[in-house]
Amino acid sequence: MSAASNPHTATAGRALLDWTDHPAWLRYGAAIVLTLIAVWARVALAPADSGGRFITPALAVALSALYGGLGPGLVSLALGMLLVNFFMVPPYGSFVFQNLEEAFWLNTWHLITQLVVVGAIALMQSRNRQLQAADRQIRLAQQHLLDTFEHAASGITHVDTRGRLLRANQTFCNMVGYSKDELAHLSFQDITVAEDIGPDLRMLDEALTGARISYMLEKRYRHKHGHIVWVQLTVALVRKSSGEPDYLIAVVQDISAQKAAEEALRTSQNLMSQAQKLANIGAWQADLATGRIGNLTKSESFLSFPSNEYGIKDMLDMIHPDDRLRVMALWPRAVKGEAVYEIEYRVVLDGHEYWHSVKAEFERDPQGRAIRALGVTQDITERKRIELEFQQLNATLEQRIRDRTRALRDAYDELESYSYAVAHDLRSPLRIINGFAQALREDNPGLDTASQEHLGRIMGASKKMGELIDGLLKLSQYSRGEVQRENVNLSAIATRILEELSVAEPQRAVEWEIEPGLLVQADPALIEALMQNLLNNAWKYTSGVAPARIRVFSRKADGGREFCVSDNGTGFDMARASKLFQPFQRLHGPSEFAGLGIGLATARRIVQRHGGELRAEARPGAGATFGFTLGDPA
Asked: Global pTM?
C-alpha cells in the first residue's frame, strides 16, 4: 500500500514536514546536524573540484528547509558554504583560493540557487498550511452540518422526487420507530396513513411543477409498532444548477401531544357545553364601561334570551317587576365590592315567567374599580316549581300531622284514663278476695293444713296481681309527660341509693366503687328511677356472691359518653338477651330471685325518652354490665 493511499502514513508525513509542529531548537539543531553529515559524507567520498563540491550540502539545505522552514534552511546554506570552502577547496583546511574568480562565481550561483530552493520550499509550506487550515475549516463545517442534521430537535429527511427516503436523522428514526437502514428501503408513502397520502402528493406535485417552492401540512405517520404519530411537515424543494428538481428537504415536528391536548380540549368543551345544556346554565360577561352584556355560550336556546348580546337596561326590563328592586339594589353594591352578587329572580320572556339563579364575579383594575363582570345564569324554573309543590305538600302534611297528633293524644289520654280505671276497678276485687281469704283464715283457725295452704295461695296470687297492676301503672307513668332536663349528679344519686340498700340489708357485705363527678343533663325524677332499677338489679343479683362488688363509671362509646352499672353477680346468657328489656320477661326463675320483670323494661323506657340507648353485656356466673347514653340535650 502506498503512502498516498494510507491516510495514517500521509498524516505522519505531513506532521514530519510541517516545521510548525516542532520546537525551534530541534529544527535548527537538525539543520546543523544534516549539514555536517552532508559535508562529512562528501569529504569521505572524495574531494570535489569546481561545482561538484556543493551537491551534498545543497541536499542538506533542502532537507533542512523542508523540516525546519526558512530559518533552518538559511542556517544550513551558510554553514554548508563555510564548510565547503574550508574543507573542499585546496589548499584544504584554509580559506585560501587559487582561483578566486572561479570560487566567487561558484559560491554566488550556489547561494542564488539555494535561496531559490529555500524560498520555494518556504512558499510551498506556507501554501500547504493554508490548504490544511482551509481543509480543517471545511471538515469542521461538514461536521457541524452533520451534527445539525443528526441532532436536530426535529426530524429531518431528504426525499427524492418519487418519495423515496434518501436519508433521515436519528430524531426522525425515533419518531417513526424505523432504523436508518430500514428507511432507506421505504418511501414516505409507506409510513404515511393512507388518508393523508393524497394531500401530501398534491402539494409535492405543485412544488415539482413550480407552483410553490415549499409547503407545510399536518399529517399522520404510522409508527413501526402500529400507533399513530401526528406530525407537522415543512417541505422545501432543492433544484440542480440546471433548474431541474433534485430532492426535497422535509423538517418533521412531532405534534402528537398537541393533537392529544386539542382533542382533550374539544372533548372538554363538548362535555362542558352538554353539561351547561343539561343544567340549563349560560355563561356571560358584562362590559361595565359600555353597559353591554354578551353571552359566552349560545344560551338563548335554553335560557330563552332573545339574543346573545343586550344592554344592562334591557336585562332589567326582562326582570319581573316584583324582583327588579332587589336586583337594582344588589348590583351597585357588588360592583363596588361591598357585596357578593348572588341572587335568584324571575324574568318575563314572551309572556312566560322563568326563575333564574345568577352569580357573578368582577375583574378590577389596579385601583380596585370593576371593569368587567363574569357570571353564570341557571334556569331554576323547574326547581322552583318543585319547591312550591313541596311547600304546599309540607303544609298539607304538617296539617295532617297536627290532626293525627291530636287524634293520637286524645286516644292516648283516653287509653290512660282507661288504664287507670281498669287498674282501679281491678284493685277493688283483689282487695275483696284478699280480705275474705284473710277473714276465712282468722275466723276458722281449725281449718286443716290443706285448706290453710289454699287460702295462702289465694292471698299470694291476689298480692302478685296487685304488684303487676302497680308495675303496669308505673311503666305507663314513665312513658308519658315531657322530659325536663336539668343538671343531675349521677354519682350522688348512686351513692345515696347504695347507702339506702346497705341500711335495708345490713347483713350484706357489698363493696362498691362510684366514679366521682358523673354529671348529666336529664330529667331528675326519671334518672332517679333509672338508677334505682339498675342498682336494685345489681344488688339483687349479687346476693349469692362473696364478696359482692358493684361499680358505677363512665366510658367513651361511639364518639360519645356511656354511663355504666357493673356487678360481679349471677350474670346471664347473651343468647337470651332479647327478652331482657321486655315487660314481665325474666331470665331467672322466681325461686332464684324475686321480682316482676318490670325494672329493666322501665329503665329502657326512661333511656329511650332521653333519646339514648340501653344495652347489656354479661356472662353466666361472671356478672353483668348495663351501659346507657342519654342523647344530646335539645
From this structure: 0.41
